[in-house]
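dumping this here before i forget
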Amino acid sequence: MIKAGIIGATGYAGGELVRLLLGHKEVEIKWFGSRSYIDKKYYEVYQNMFQIVDAVCMDDNMEELADQVDVIFTATPQGLCASLIKEEILKKVKVIDLSADFRIKDVKVYEKWYGIEHKAPQYIEEAVYGLCEINREDIKKARIVANPGCYTTCSILTLYPLVKEGLIDTDTIIIDAKSGTSGAGRGAKVSNLFCEVNENMKAYGVTSHRHTPEIEEQLGYAGNCEITLNFTPHLVPMNRGILATAYAKLLKKADGSIPSYEEVKAAYDKYYQNEKFVRVLEKGICPETKWVEGSNYVDVNFVIDERTGRVIAMGALDNLVKGAAGQAVQNMNLVFGFKESEGLELVPMFP
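structure:
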């Protein structure tokens, strides 16, 4: 049994972490951190935890926390984890950061896209990008795990086999993605009010969304090349879920033909047939958010457009589970040598 602390336990991702860790047989939560609700009972913030969690919310004192637990999850806004982390802490605990502080290896890129100064650039190189299906062995040895973003997890896993196997022209990648409103966080914002979101759908962060450089960097590693792509997110009136639809030109083979369905399917099977949480759907079945809701699964599939020579690749996940808290637990399982699916054997909810 290990002890865990959560800084940011009252945000949506933090609340999902609590839910998942309560069902994990190897973990005890010792610290429910929340700067906004210090000294308030956790169940008073989330009434679904009444008679389940009686703990009081604590502050974000990472140094004190490090003396009490084995792993710290930081489900906080960008910049906080980097401002708190130090060598004395990393000598005592593992840190799994759900913010973007350690995802991007180029500090200048991080500072440009996030508009803040990075407070701990000395740890950027050491931090391991926590996409388990791709970096599993490195995660096992990590002191700092940079938990990927929700849009990025969906986009990268949807496109990874195509890029890794050199099946597409990476200069032609366009990603169109939709997310439920929980992806915008729990903070009060006019744009997230019911009357603003309901019966509405809108693009946002067009050409400027912060997950863009993360997707480009990770797919660039896969293709061993520099990638620049278009990523456009949209907000849709549902609680949770992400659907990413990606378009790219298939590279022609020596005989001038484009890869067949069987050849592309073989690429997906090569990387995902042994993966517990990535489901490559049967031919003709498109991913839907409702079939992954509440679970750690990612559903992916593709369709080849013979007329245009393009492939349309699709992925769906729950942004709060595989897109945040579930992936964080999956990373923790790898770091501590637990069964990778422990605490994550969640059957998708329907309806």
